[in-house]
Amino acid sequence: MTKQSAALSRTFAALADPTRRRIVERLSRGRASVSEIAKPLAMSLPAVVQHLAVLEESGIVKSEKVGRVRTCWMDPKAIGAAQVWLGRQADMWNARFDRLDALLEGRELKDE
Asked: If residue 108 lies in a helix (H) or strand (E), which one and from where to where?
């Protein structure tokens, strides 16, 4: 497995959990402290910290601690690799569906 492939797998694994996706949605609006992130979630603070650790390990979230406050933010580059991969998959499937439509309509589709 290549380094890029492993990073992409970590990104998708991190985003597979609905709580982590909610955290990413929150951080997409800007920086937030761990307590701000935890407030709307129906779970303990240590559980939120564990979810944040998974997001940090995947590279999606970065954080820094100043005094007693840990502030988190998103690193859009980590999500960008997933977007590129998903875009390629969408392009491939759209091309296949175009060819299928052409076949079903009895016409030939020019190679693009």
From this structure: none
Domain parsing of the chain, residue ranges: 3-75
The answer as to CATH 1.25.40.180 being correct for domain 3-75 is: no
Q: How far apart are CA 10 and CA 85, in angstroms?
A: 13
In sequence order, the 6+-apart residues with CB closer than 8 A to the CB of 62 are: 56, 72, 73, 74, 75
Render pLDDT for 52-90 as a digit per residue (tens, 0 to 9): 999 999 999 999 999 999 999 999 888 888 888 889 999
Q: By three-state DSSP, how is residue 74 classified?
A: strand
pTM for the whole structure: 0.76
- Where do we find the tokens 């920086």? 31
Are 83 and 91 contacting, i.e. CB atoms less than 8 angstroms apart? no
Amino acid residing at 100 = L
